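Why this split exists: single-chain examples teach little about how molecules sit against one another. For that reason, every record in the complexes split bundles all components of an assembly together and asks for one structure covering all of them. Below is a record exactly as it appears in the raw files.
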Amino acid sequence: EIVLTQSPATLSLSPGERATLSCRASQSISNYLGWYQQKPGQAPRLLIYDASNRATGTPARFSGSGSGTDFTLTISSLEPEDFAVYYCQQRSNWPHLTFGPGTKVEIK
Amino acid sequence: QVQLHESGPGLVKPSQTLSLTCTVTGASLRRSEDFWSWIRQPAGKGLEWIGRLYPSGSTNYNPSLKSRVTMSVDRSNNQFSLKLTSVTAADTAVYYCARESSLPPNFFDYWGQGALVIVSS
C-alpha cells in the first residue's frame, strides 16, 4: 500500500499570503497525484490532477508541482474562500486509491 | 450536470449491515469511461476509499474492508449501492459516493453531498 503523508497538519496564514502544502508518498508514484479541497459540511472538490493539471473550474492561484515522492500544492495569494482542508490522493497503485491525512489551512 | 445523491438509514446497530444507495443523474452508469466509488470519512478525520464499481458490474474493494463490502448496480434506476456487514462503531462516518472519471483519470470529479451513518445500539 502506498502511504501518503501531508505537512504541515495545520497552516495558519492571513488572506493574501502564499500557502505551500506538502504531500509525500512512501514510494515513487510518478506524477499520479491529485489535490482536493474540502470545506466544512461539504464533499471534497478536485483541484489538481496528475500533479500539476488544474481541474475544470480551479482558479489559477492554485498550482501543483512535484513528481516521484514529493509534491506541493501552492496557493499564490489566499482568498477568504480558500481556508479549508486539503487532501492529496494517489492513483499510482490503481485500482487501489489512497488519500493523505489532510492539511488544514486556517485564518491566522 | 452530473449529480449524485446518497440515501439510506442514518443509524445502524452494531453487528448489522449498513446499506446505502447512490442515485446518479446527468450521467449513465452504463458509460464505459466512468467508474463509481464509495468513500467514507469519520468525523474530523481523513478520507478512505471503500471500493469501485465498473459499468460491467465488476468491482474492486479496499483490501482492509474487502471481507465485509459488497457493491452492486441497478441500471434501470441508474443507482448503485453499498453493503457493509458486521459493522462496529469504527464504521461510523460520512459516506460519499463519487464518480471516477476517465478524464482526469482515476480522480473523483463529482461527489454526492454525503450521508452520515452512525453505528450505535
